[in-house]
Amino acid sequence: MRNLMKRSMGLFGKKPQIYSKPILILMGAPGVGKGTYGKRLSKDWSMPIFSTGEYLRTLLKTDKTDLGNELRALVKAGKLVGDDVIMKIMEKRLFTDEDKKAKGIILDGFPRTVGQAELLDKLGKVQAVMNFFLRDDILIEKLAGRRECEKCHIPYNVATIIRDGYDMEPLMPKKDPGHCDACNGKLIQREDDTEKVIKDRLIEYKQKTAPLEGYYKKKGVYIEFEPKKGVKDYPEIKQKLEDYIKTKQKK
Ligand code: AMP
């Protein structure tokens, strides 16, 4: 964490860099499926995806500094970490040399506040924001059923939600129910996927992140989707985004 801060401060001190390629944002409450859809889009479009939550969890596993401990406590409690820390992470990620050839970037879990969105606008151009929404009771059930691979973070889900027009089957590994199909890593439940923390995360989302909807509507880059069928919705989501981007490019 200390290294990250040092490196990023350097960037802040200099003339701001501009990310010149398209930025696609996937937004929506925790558990709505952003990560699952985003990982598929990233594969199909050969475009990198960056999840601030996943990055923080990996970084904080080994960080024992005071700042690391402070951030770990926030993530564990389902509270947002400060915009200053997140912006340093984002800046470092956007301007990494690794992605020089990438066509653009997909962001999952960022921005999460209007302040972050305003700062992002200074770094590059947001091409499209897809907001996924679902009823709270469905989100809570999905989050409680969520599992992920400890090693490669591929998402799975043990919940079956078939009622009131929702048709979500469990998303389980095909070979072994306890291990990831891709890398055989163990499936784990996230520390913040407990009932109490799930409820706090939803409150945090409504207070701090939901206002982004209005922010991006005003900018004319906003589309939304209610994924009532889980992974079965993926082809429609991909199509909707591709159509939207094509139409924007023509304008
Ligand atoms: P996620 O994996 O997207 O659900 O994020 C997990 C946790 O990481 C959140 O509950 C926050 O504590 C933290 N986090 C991730 N992204 C952000 C962000 N953009 N701003 C502030 N905190 C974040």
Descriptive labels:
alpha/beta; Rossmann fold; 5-stranded parallel sheet; 3-stranded antiparallel sheet
Gist of the model:
The chain is of the alpha/beta class.
Describe the fold and architecture.
By secondary structure, this protein is α/β, with parallel strands linked by helices. The protein has a single domain (2-134, 195-250), classed as P-loop containing nucleotide triphosphate hydrolases (Rossmann fold), CATH 3.40.50. Helix content is 47%, strand content 18%. It is built from 10 helices and 10 strands. It has helices at 2-13, 34-45, 52-62, 66-77, 83-94, 114-123, 136-145, 195-209, 212-219, 234-250; strands at 19-28, 49-51, 105-108, 124-132, 146-149, 155-157, 161-163, 166-168, 187-188, 222-225. The strands form 3 sheets. A 5-stranded parallel β-sheet has the order 2-3-1-4-10. It has a 3-stranded antiparallel β-sheet with strand order 6-5-9. Strands 7-8 form a two-stranded antiparallel ribbon. Helix 3 (52-62) packs across helix 4 and helix 5 runs parallel beside helix 6 (114-123). It is globular, with a radius of gyration of 18 Å. Adenosine monophosphate (AMP) binds next to helix 3 and helix 4. Residues 30, 52-54, 56, 74-75, 78-81, 86, 109-112, 116, 192, 201 line the site of adenosine monophosphate.
CATH topology: Rossmann fold
Tell me the helix content: 40-55%
CATH top-level class: Alpha Beta
Q: Write down the Rg.
A: 18 Å
**Poorly predicted regions:** 7-11
Distance between the termini: 42 Å
Major sheet, described briefly?
Answer: 5 strands, parallel
Shape: globular
Count of helical regions: 10
